[in-house]
Design the sequence.
C-alpha cells in the first residue's frame, strides 16, 4: 500500500519537509563568500551537485534571499568547501541566522585561509575547496540556483590515494531529513558493465 501526497493541497513547508526526507543523502556545499562590506560569510547548502564537466561547473540552491546569494550576485565569486565529519558542530552552527554583516567565520570560530584565484576565503580545516566564479543564476519560485565555474581546486594530500580522493579519508557529511545528518557508512564498490560484456553479467532475474 502506498500513501499519496499532493503538493498543491499540502502547502510549501510540509511538502518541503517531505522532499528533504526522501531525497537523501544530500551532499553539502559549505559556501564561503565575501560581501561588499568585506565581511566573509559561510553557510551550508544541501541542494548541491555537479552541473557540468567541460567547463567544470557546480551548482547550489539558495532557498530565499540569503547572504550567500546576495554576496554571489554582488561579487561574482564563491568557494565550495567540503563539510567534513570532524567539523560537524561548526558546519551546523554556520546555518544560524546571524544578522547581515556578521561573519560566521568569526562568530563560530572557523579558521580561514586565503584562496588562490578568488577573494572569498577557504575553510582551513576542510580537506577540499573549489574556488568558483559565477557562471549564471536561475530563479525558480522562492529559490535561486547558482552555477559556478570551478577555476581552482585544492585537496589535502592526506586524503589522496593513488591520485584519488578516498571517501573514507574525506569523511564528508550529508544532510538527511529533519535535523538528521549522515556520515560515511559501508562503501560498495561495483564497476559499470559495458554492453559488450552484458551477456551473463547483469543482475540475476527471478
Sequence:
Amino acid at each position: 500500500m502506498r500513501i499519496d501526497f499532493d503538493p498543491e493541497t499540502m502547502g510549501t513547508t510540509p511538502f518541503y519537509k517531505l522532499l528533504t526526507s526522501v531525497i537523501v543523502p544530500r551532499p553539502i556545499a559549505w559556501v564561503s563568500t565575501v560581501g561588499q562590506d568585506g565581511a566573509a560569510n559561510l553557510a551550508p547548502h544541501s541542494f548541491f551537485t555537479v552541473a557540468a564537466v567541460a567547463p567544470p561547473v557546480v551548482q547550489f540552491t539558495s532557498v530565499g534571499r540569503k547572504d550567500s546569494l546576495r554576496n554571489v550576485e554582488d561579487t561574482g565569486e564563491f568557494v565550495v568547501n567540503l563539510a567534513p565529519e570532524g567539523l560537524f558542530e561548526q558546519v551546523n552552527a554556520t546555518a544560524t541566522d546571524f544578522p547581515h554583516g556578521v561573519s560566521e567565520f568569526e562568530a563560530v570560530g572557523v579558521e580561514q585561509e586565503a584562496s588562490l584565484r578568488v577573494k572569498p576565503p577557504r575553510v582551513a580545516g576542510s580537506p577540499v575547496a573549489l574556488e568558483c566564479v559565477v557562471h549564471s543564476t536561475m530563479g525558480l519560485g522562492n529559490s535561486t540556483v547558482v552555477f559556478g565555474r570551478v577555476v581552482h581546486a585544492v585537496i589535502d594530500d592526506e586524503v589522496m590515494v593513488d591520485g584519488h580522493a578516498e571517501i573514507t579519508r574525506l569523511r564528508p557529511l550529508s544532510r538527511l531529513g529533519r535535523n538528521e545528518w549522515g556520515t560515511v557508512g559501508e562503501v560498495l564498490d561495483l564497476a559499470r558493465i559495458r554492453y559488450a560484456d552484458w551477456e551473463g553479467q547483469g543482475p540475476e532475474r527471478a
User: Anything to note?
Assistant: The CA atoms of residues 159 and 169 lie 5 Å apart. Helices lie at 7-10, 12-22, 67-75, 88-93, 104-108, 167-170. The first strand starts at residue 26 and ends at 27.
